[in-house]
Amino acid sequence: MNILAIGAHPDDIETSCGGTLAKYAKAGHKVFTATATNGNVGSSTLSMEEIAAIRKEEARRAAAHIGAEYICLDYDDEMFFEDKTARLDFINLVRYCKADVILTHNPHDYNPDHELTSKIINDIAVMIPVEKIKTKAPAYDKIPIIVYFEPVNGLGFVPTEYVDITDTIDIKRAMCREHKSQISWMQDNYKDTMTGKDFFEDYDIIAKYRGIQCGVPYAEGFRMANDAFRVIPYRILP
Q: CA dist 79 to 37, 75, 113, 208, Å?
């Protein structure tokens, strides 16, 4: 299968579903990672152009841990809005990847870029096979399955699916820590809401908690998009 994980910002994917993507890759599936924005406000000291370049390179290095291809749609961080161009860019991305499965943000999250990324993916999924909607990548005859990973800190999220990532937790950690620029950024901007100096440590706690829920050391939790043309009678997650 072709697996596309799309987040709003560099580091969203690795923190939310890095262990699951590593399992897909180990099983021989083709994995793509993508971000809607380039993260260009993610520094207190660097210019927008400088931090965007750094964050895209960090995302490429993270993807390389599992042999994935990284794609950035290059929208501005926190100033990402929907219009016809954005919708077509998302359709083109999915068609380029020929995605069978898309992992993306939960529709309800703390950040508008997260929620809009999820919304656009949901909006355009049924358009993928429509030939009259023209993009650089051609249409293909499939409506991808959509899987939501949990929002930041898991607030209000009750998984319906779990993936045991005990054997890929170290890969997930390595992928996350390629995003070195985000450790200082989070400390500079969100220090009052953080539990430690390295916010990636929080994702270990979440993985342990989800593991407790399903009886393994580490897990990631998900919900399926159970809408028309997306319901399946079999398990799609590894």
A: 9, 8, 8, 34
Domain map (residue ranges) of the chain: 2-224
DSSP symbols for 218-238: SEEEEEE--STTT--SS----
Q: Terminus-to-terminus CA distance in the chain, angstroms? A: 11
Residues whose CB falls within 8 Å of the CB of residue 11, separated by 6 or more in sequence, listed in order? 39, 55, 58, 59, 62, 176, 179, 182
Distance of CA 6 to the CA centre of its chain: 4
Beta bridge partners, 104, equal 148
What CATH number was assigned to the domain covering residues 2-224?
3.40.50.10320
CB 11 within 8 A of CB 58: yes
Spatial separation of the C-alpha atoms in residues 36 and 89, rounded to whole Å: 9
pTM given for the model: 0.95
**Burial degree of 1 (CB within 10 A; 0-12, 13-18, 19+):** middle
- Note down pLDDT in tens along the chain; length 238 residues: 999 999 999 999 999 999 999 999 999 999 999 999 999 999 888 999 999 999 999 999 999 999 999 999 999 999 999 999 999 999 999 999 999 999 999 999 999 999 999 999 999 999 999 999 999 999 999 999 999 999 999 999 999 999 999 999 999 999 999 999 988 777 766 665 655 567 788 899 999 999 999 999 999 999 999 888 888 999 999 9
